[in-house]
Design brief:
Chain lengths: 224, 793
């Protein structure tokens, strides 16, 4: 019996412009189980990234019920949401979003430092991660000295270093050429096989094939 | 980690870091330099044990204000008061040390025997005065300071017991004070017994008095006791004491009360400069925060709390402020050297240094400024809109607008602070200019002055004294370039006073001291008026025949003449001066301002030195020749006439005039400088805001141009925006400046606190600054290439 990790009930998101409400998500009801590899697809403006932001708690202006690991996110304060986010979620972005002033090793250290992990433990986790992602030789380089693929590799390493149960990836290969994209998707597959739940947003049918299930969005609705 | 990352981030943007550090160093450096003066003058404890127990006891009367104490009054209250443990009277005087080597002028304090117990400082070598030595007829005993002991006696312990010649009288050195002994604002080389005279007049307030409170006694208790002693003295001695009261104030307050307003104004002004610098750096940080929106959002996504983000930004701000503080200290040490040359003469002898309290102040100011300018941007950026901040090229309209509003508010605040400083400086400059225009009653240029002091013990005979001065004057007339030479016992603007009572012939002597008429008195030689350029308005100057064998004569000034004989020629009228014989007025001299260009008018009388000889005179020589040569000639002549005579206070008369305005010059110069810095920083602030605004609106500018807007129109639009910022700051600043100007009334001279010219000129100046600061960004806006901008967007 699969264990539900995410339960979304009637999630709605709209923007108010004067008297007009523009909906970007309508009545979203989704269950995602631990170990799932979910792909969210749809045309531009269909609400894919918004849904990912809602799940990642980057966006708070939505209505409906959202349970993450049995925690009612819709009832939590912003501080509690940050704590929940820290415990469960790792992010991977299309444009990597590495911190330019920090070296590769320091970028990996950042999420741990915000989780009050001891320095010695952090050093050891960063070393493990560098080793695991085969980027030991790059540890002192800065993002500007890396290729796009290498940057995304570091971004994934950073996303998983605090052992999140869920990885949210927004167009993770959007800025990479096909060979690099393939490599990154293989990495996601491996992480998923090791138990990490993955939700990716993509336009690529090929990438979508890595997932177990695809949620198609159109005009904010889940398409049938 | 925060620290390391912050350093790296700053190193990657060196121009931002350098501009911010330079602005802060300027603000903190100026504050540190000024604070080191304030610390030395207003905050540093008096250099005595338990300094808070020391009080000044002065005598007060409505028309005289606070003056020193009279010997018999001192004797009475120091014995009657139970709230005090010890008391002392002292008088700053000059002594001439002679006998070995060149005669040297020594700054002395004539002190009563309680001096050591009152200060709590005792000789490190030797002993204090015995009671039998504290008499005018006692053999001379002197306690010397450590400085003099080392300089003149080579720190030889056997100096104790050695005889020295002071003012021609033999004194024995009985003690050497410890090295740390100083009297604040009173340079002192030796201590000699005052020899108080209990039979002296109770109206002769010739000494300063201070006392030490008993343990557990408060100032208020002492004030109450001295009030009751005053009443007793008034009842016991109604002619001299009926309108006088004994006033008790903390000694520290009385020492610096004259310069306190000037220093507080300067401190307030320099504080404003720092605020402007902070606003400037806060603006820079807000721009930085806008540029770092993505980085901050990523940190938030990676789990950073608001506090952690704010701390990261605050650490950067603190690094900037501490670097600014460090650089500020070097700047302050350099500025302090210039400042020492500018401080008012009454505090010029104090020790100004970047000592531990000052460095703690700098550290505190640096941390506070770091928090002040870092907190707003830090708090504003710690809760970013994550979804928009993380989008490629995303722009958070709301956050951007609120940040822009904050930046505009900061720039307006800078303008406001600059207005306050500029108005303050303007009022002081106008005051100072008015003061410079005041006619002192004499012509200081080309006049060199010096004091010559004869050893009194050897000049007990009036004839010998007169002979010495005659020969000195004869010689002075022969020197190259001498156009006139004269002597006076009371040189104007030398921070001394010389007053006496007078009664015009026919008037009855006053029943009470309070009704007595007072006049400034000087004993002068015939050539004094010509040497000083004091016009003789009626009658004649003194003549060689105005000596002891001829009728007593006097020259009055036109102030006294107008008061008693308006519209008449007073020549031939007679007055009693100093309760002496009737003197016939032979001439009327122009009024001189002896107590300061801004001081009220005091009537003056001049007596001929041959009728009233004195051993201590100032020589004034109007010369067309070289001053140094004139001074050499004086020294040679005096050495030939009497090697034991001392020469000191050698100064051009213009220097005395300048020194008399040193307090006003100090505040005026500093405020001018601060206002200049403030205007520069405010201009940079407006420039920064306008530049950023133009950069942010390049898309809008491109569209406007594409729709047919003319470049000149865009230029006007941007300049108008700059002027709007200026108008807001100007409005608030002018209101604040009005309040400040009202507080400054006491330090202004013949300037209304609301001077329309100053306020108007300041407003115009600030508008000009705003236009200038907006012009470059406006020009950039007008040169926007719509093709490029729109394609880029």
């Amino acid at each position: 019996m699969p264990t539900p990790l995410i339960q979304l009930n009637n999630i709605e998101r709209f923007y108010q412009t004067g008297p007009t409400r523009t909906y970007v998500l309508r009545r979203i009801n989704v269950q995602i189980n631990e170990g799932d590899f979910i792909t969210i697809m749809g045309p531009s403006g269909s609400g894919k990234s918004t849904l990912l932001n809602v799940i990642g708690m980057l966006d708070s202006g939505w209505a409906g019920e959202y349970f993450l690991a049995d925690q009612p996110v819709h009832k939590l304060s912003s501080k509690q949401r940050i704590e929940l986010n820290k415990r469960y979620i790792g992010f991977v972005f299309q444009s990597y979003h590495l911190l330019d002033d920090l070296s590769v090793a320091e970028n990996l250290d950042v999420p741990l430092s915000y989780r009050n992990v001891k320095k010695s433990e952090r050093d050891s986790l960063v070393a493990d991660s560098l080793d695991r992602f085969h980027i030991v030789g790059k540890k002192d380089l800065f993002p500007s000295q890396l290729s796009g693929g290498q940057q995304q590799l570091v971004a994934i390493a950073r996303a998983v270093i605090a052992s999140p149960k869920l990885i949210l990836a927004d167009e993770p290969t959007g800025n990479l050429h096909s060979a690099q994209g393939e490599e990154i998707m293989q990495l996601f597959k491996k992480l998923n096989e090791q138990g990490t739940t993955i939700i990716q947003v993509t336009h690529s049918e090929k990438n979508a094939e890595y997932g177990h299930r695809t949620i198609n969005l159109a005009d904010g609705w889940i398409a049938a | 980690m925060n620290f390391k990352i912050a350093i790296r981030a700053l190193r990657k943007r060196p121009s931002f870091a350098l501009i911010a550090i330079a602005a802060l160093a300027l603000g903190i450096g100026l504050n540190t330099a000024i604070f080191s003066v304030v610390e030395a003058v207003l905050l540093r404890s008096l250099p005595f044990p338990h300094p808070d127990k020391l009080i000044r006891v002065s005598e007060w009367q409505k028309s005289f204000g606070h003056v020193g104490t009279a010997d018999p009054n001192f004797e009475d209250w120091s014995h009657q008061a139970h709230t005090i443990a010890a008391a002392s009277e002292f008088r700053p005087v000059d002594y001439t040390l002679s006998g070995t080597g060149d005669a040297e002028r020594l700054r002395a304090l004539e002190v009563s025997s309680g001096f050591f117990a009152t200060t709590g400082v005792f000789p490190a070598l030797g002993r204090t005065f015995r009671a039998d030595e504290d008499r005018t007829d006692a053999p001379g005993a002197v306690v010397i300071t450590d400085g003099l002991w080392r300089r003149r006696f080579g720190a030889d312990p056997s100096a104790i017991g050695r005889a020295v010649d002071l003012n021609g009288k033999a004194f024995t050195i009985i003690g050497v004070m410890p090295p740390a002994f100083t009297m604040p604002t009173l340079p002192c080389d030796i201590l000699v017994p005052a020899g108080l005279k209990s039979d002296n007049q109770r109206g002769s307030h010739r000494g300063e008095a201070f006392a030490r409170l008993r343990p557990g006694i408060t100032l208020r208790q002492a004030q109450a006791e001295f009030a009751s002693i005053s009443s007793r003295l008034a009842k016991a001695y109604p002619p001299t004491n009926s309108d006088w009261s004994l006033e008790v104030t903390p000694l520290r307050e009385s020492v610096v009360s004259d310069v306190r307003p000037a220093l507080l104004i300067v401190l307030g002004a320099v504080g404003l400069v720092l605020l402007i610098a902070c606003a400037n750096v806060a603006n820079l940080l807000l721009v930085r925060a806008s540029e770092r929106r993505r980085e901050i959002a990523v940190r938030a996504v990676l789990g950073a709390s608001r506090t952690q983000i704010a701390m990261q930004l605050l650490v950067e701000a603190l690094i900037l402020s501490l670097a600014g503080g460090l650089l500020g200290i070097s700047l302050a040490s350099w500025m302090l050297r210039s400042l020492v040359a500018m401080v008012p003469v009454e505090i010029a002898t104090m020790d100004f240094s970047l000592n531990t309290p000052v460095l703690f102040f700098t550290l505190g100011v640096s941390l506070l400024t770091g928090i002040a300018f870092g907190l707003l941007p830090a708090l504003g950026s710690s809760a970013p809109n994550l979804t928009t901040s993380l989008k490629e090229g995303g722009r958070s309209a709301t956050a951007g607008e609120s940040r822009n509003r904050l930046r505009s508010a900061l720039a307006s605040a800078e303008i406001g602070f600059a207005v306050v400083l500029a108005v303050g400086a303007g009022l002081l400059v106008k005051s100072f200019a008015n003061l410079q225009r005041v006619n002192p009653g004499f012509q200081p240029p080309s006049v060199i002055t010096m004091r010559v002091s004869l050893p009194e013990a050897r000049y007990t005979d009036d004839a010998a004294t007169v002979r010495f001065w005659d020969r000195l004057l004869d010689s002075a007339q022969q020197w190259n370039g001498t156009r006139a030479a004269g002597l006076t016992s009371f040189l104007p603007l030398t921070d001394t006073d010389s007053q006496t009572g007078y009664i015009p012939e026919g008037e009855a002597p006053p029943a009470r001291l309070a009704d007595k008429k007072w006049v400034d008195i000087a004993t002068v030689s015939p050539g004094y008026f010509a040497a000083m350029g004091i016009p003789l308005q009626q009658g004649r100057t003194f003549e060689a025949t105005d000596d002891a064998t001829h009728p007593a004569v006097v020259i009055v000034d036109d102030s006294l003449a107008r008061k008693h004989w308006p519209g008449q020629n007073p020549a031939g009228k007679r007055i009693h001066v100093s309760a002496g014989k009737l003197r016939t007025i032979v001439g009327v001299a122009g009024h001189v301002k002896p107590y300061g260009l801004d001081a009220g008018e005091h009537a003056q009388v001049y007596l001929p030195y041959r009728q009233v000889p004195t051993a201590d005179m100032s020589l004034a020589v109007r010369t067309s020749g070289n001053w140094a040569a004139a001074v050499d000639q004086v020294r040679q002549t005096v050495r030939q006439l009497d090697p034991a005579a001392g020469i000191f206070d050698v100064k051009p008369m213009q220097q005395w005039v300048d020194d008399s305005t040193s307090r006003r010059r100090f505040t005026t110069l500093l405020l001018e400088m601060f206002a200049g810095v403030a205007l520069l920083l405010a201009a940079l602030g407006v420039y920064g805001v306008m530049s950023y605004s133009v950069a942010q609106r390049s898309h809008e500018m491109g569209i406007r141009l594409a729709l047919g807007a003319k470049p000149a129109g865009l230029k006007r639009m941007v300049v108008r925006q700059g002027l709007t910022l200026c108008a807001i700051g100007l409005g608030a600043g002018l209101v604040a400046a009005l309040a400040l100007a009202r507080m400054m009334t006491a330090v202004l001279f013949e300037v209304h606190s609301f001077d329309p010219l100053i306020f108007g000129a300041t407003a115009a100046l600030l508008c000009a600054v705003a236009v200038a600061a907006s012009y470059l960004p406006a020009r950039r806006a007008s040169r926007t290439d719509p093709m490029n901008t729109l394609r880029y967007e």
